[in-house]
């Protein structure tokens, strides 16, 4: 991959779980959360933001454009018709069903309300296939002891009709899966299943399974990933050769003390639909999780994200498969 560093986000720490997309040629990054005062192992508190930042050209300067309706992060975001669509997400106390569009035009930030999801969801995955916006999995509440396998679709050309529910994802419910839009289908990879121990402690089971959803034929299971992938950048970049999975948390370092955690997987995988095969095709220059991927001009952009547990990054990277 060809990597290019863009100007850093205008925040010293950076954010994980932001919304990101494009509007009238500008790159927008909105919301997310970080630890602004202390690291979590030092007793720091996670804080959600409502800031909306914009970058009008790759060599430009980030500007603060406005505010979200409230602090929000860990939702699904896609670009559609010069707007950044933001779906669901959370703050420090609850999860949300809200859906809205951010539009940056003529120096002003406008927020347009869309029909809400049938249920509140955070940590779901989703993407847009043509004019259909898909959302899969997630959690309904911060204290959920299980994840959802429900799937929803909003047809954007007639959004007033609201969301429809699709057949559920065939595998276990999951959070932090990776979605992709490719060849007219929705693709879902990995994520983490949640389960509770007898004492109420919620644990994660790292997943390797993968699925395709085609509107005419429904769900189909694919070849498993070579290794689990949780919270990899999403929606995954694509090319004529296939779908690229950009690292993620493979669970190999789960349980290590946060202050000594070396970071997440740098393995670059490509899924090739024609042969239903995964190939290891290189290593990432940087590894980030809980961060959206935006197709901007002729590149895929990763703005911010989590560099290791409890540590965000303000760096912005553009890649070309």
UniProtKB/TrEMBL annotation:
<dbReference type="InterPro" id="IPR006652">
    <property type="entry name" value="Kelch_1"/>
</dbReference>
<dbReference type="InterPro" id="IPR052392">
    <property type="entry name" value="Kelch-BTB_domain-containing"/>
</dbReference>
<dbReference type="InterPro" id="IPR056734">
    <property type="entry name" value="NANM"/>
</dbReference>
<protein>
    <submittedName>
        <fullName>N-acetylneuraminic acid mutarotase</fullName>
    </submittedName>
</protein>
<dbReference type="InterPro" id="IPR011043">
    <property type="entry name" value="Gal_Oxase/kelch_b-propeller"/>
</dbReference>
<dbReference type="InterPro" id="IPR015915">
    <property type="entry name" value="Kelch-typ_b-propeller"/>
</dbReference>
<dbReference type="Pfam" id="PF24996">
    <property type="entry name" value="NANM"/>
</dbReference>
